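Example with several molecule types.
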Amino acid sequence: MNPMNDIVSVSVPPGSYLPDAINPALLRRALVIKLRHHGDVLLTSPVLSSLKAAAPACEIDALVFSDTAPMLQGHPALHTLHCLGRDWKKLGPLTQLRKELGILKALRARQYDLIIHLTDHPRGAWLTRLLKPRWAVAPQRSKGGGWWKKSFTHLYRTVGGGRRHTVETHLDALRRLGIRPQGDARKLSLVPGTAAEARIDALLAQHGLNAKGFIQIHPASRWFFKCWPVGLNAELLRVLAAQGLKIVMTGAPDPREREMVDAILNQANVPVVNLTGELNLSELGALTSRARLFVGVDSAPMHIAAAVGTPCVALFGPSGDKEWGPWGVEHRIVTSSHSCRPCGQDGCGGGKVSECLYAISVQQVSQAIAEVLAS
Amino acid sequence: MARYNTILAHRPMHIVHTEASCGWGGQEIRILEESRGMIERGHSITLVCPEEATIFARAKDWGISAIALPIGEKRWANFKAMRAWILANHGKFDVINTHSSTDSWLVALSNLSLGKKACPVVRTRHISAPVKNSFVNRWLYGKAAAQVVTTGESLRNDLVDHLSLPPDHVQSIFTGINTKRFEPGDKVAMRTQLGLDVNAKWIGIIATLRSWKGHKYLLKAVAELDDPRIRIVIVGDGPQRDKLNRLTVELGLSRIVRFAGQQRDVVPWLQALDMFVLPSYANEGVSQAVMQAMATGLPVITTPIGSSSDIVKPGLTGMLVPPKDSKALAQAIRTLLDNPQEAHKLGQGARSFALEHCGIERMLTRMEAVFQRVAG
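Resulting structure tokens for the full complex:
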């Protein structure tokens, strides 16, 4: 397994072989659309950085769901962040319509030269048709044929089978336009903000922790079929505590995640700092940036760790580590030897329990942790 | 959706150009040059213009069929003539390309009154004069024309910004130059033919003699250098001629400056030069002369005025000096004279850049795509 980051520098001659490459110098305003979950949105940050590097004069906006806004807020290449609410549907059809029209008006006023739509959701095609940019790029879609195709000027091809990292797939949108992402612009970026940093510094002081003096463990995920079982987590805690390592547990302010962390702590019965449910996403970013090491599963907090440059030990079950592994940071990926993985299913047979995660031993994980700590 | 310079399936089209203006300049040359290229690509062209327009007389020389129609003014009679012509020729052409304000209005209003017999319109805007943001202008550019083409990027941006037009509605397709005509030639033969000293170092400027073209700074720079090898050739005529003549005498450069006046064909003059200088300090878009010199393979020294820096990349395709700075200009000329290899490299870079980016083919392909899209 590649212990260092996946960002391989390949020297490619300058110039473009594309007959329909765009001239980035002509871009004045661009919009990146990513209406998905937190991790997906965070993995678009290299698109913003790379586009900015190619077109320094271009104002780059993004359109995301409002709950994922902290993933891009404060990004150095970002001009304006437009947000759609996931809860607008609950407000009644009239309010929803008014809100949708409001955002459409705001977007139209920006007169975008370029729209980069990074999912195959029809909403991006609708928006592109309404906003009439000079250029628009989206992934190729097997279904929906002509209507989808005619909504965009450029379509990029995706690599199937989970063989390409999602960040590279996102950057393929730029490559299709003739913009080649290079160097540090391909790294993830997350800016927690000064308020979050101040709160975390205060919290760490309160618990007597030093920056880079503790390990962060984030055992839960929105999808429980991606999580390592409670018993093994507890055993790992005991092993790490016996080594004298300071541990901070984190989790989302969600009753199921709290329950899981509480169960782990009850079984382990070792001293740890438990911040589960106490931090928002920006504060989580600020905390992770101060951790010596992040231990967790394939989830948004793992991508946050990669974005703030904290080394990761990541446990992968049914999801693909080539596609979703920690990007651009020192890491170890721990998996079982199941021949079926990554299957992309929600548990074996769709039963919400992934046996490949149960098969990962505590010894495997603690060894990976020791390796990263030693390097 | 906008298909950016995409080559679509080829289908011969009949394109009608309307031009109400009677003058003769870059706008008219672009129309004729573009039309000739389109004919070479298998399309047919009809030019509609007033009988007294210069372009009507010259169209024949370019092999373009022109029809005289009284459309020179925004009058009722002219509207009737335009409308009647469109109606009479309905179905015989695919698209109308309007160029000046008057003919755009006549065609737009005709279309408005023709209902289903209206024809698709492409509006080309050649000049940079600001367009007032009014309801009628938004209609003329936004609704009455299916596509708007400008000859420069900043022109495009002004239109999109001031009239709040959709970004894919306006494209900039700048006039290319004929890279088959402007190509490196035999320096010695050309100098002999034009009566220029074969062994000297010839610096050239081709521009209308106007103050902002900066001839003055070139003369001062050369006077400063005081190099016996240097000769200057000034091609062009204009209001500043007497002033420049006097300045030449004052600076003691009479023996080395050659005023060639207005030239119909500048190719031999460019081919005879060692370097091209255009020290303008205002009012430039992308200078045609600079592109022509680059296509001829000359090292170019110019200023970052207008969009010149789009094509002149320092150290790759030419040199940039600050405007109104004869010392910096002298320094740049000295560099090129003392390093013939560097000068040669810049000339080569300029030529390959011009071939790739400034050729007329690019303009034709993109115009073709616009017409095809609008014609449906």
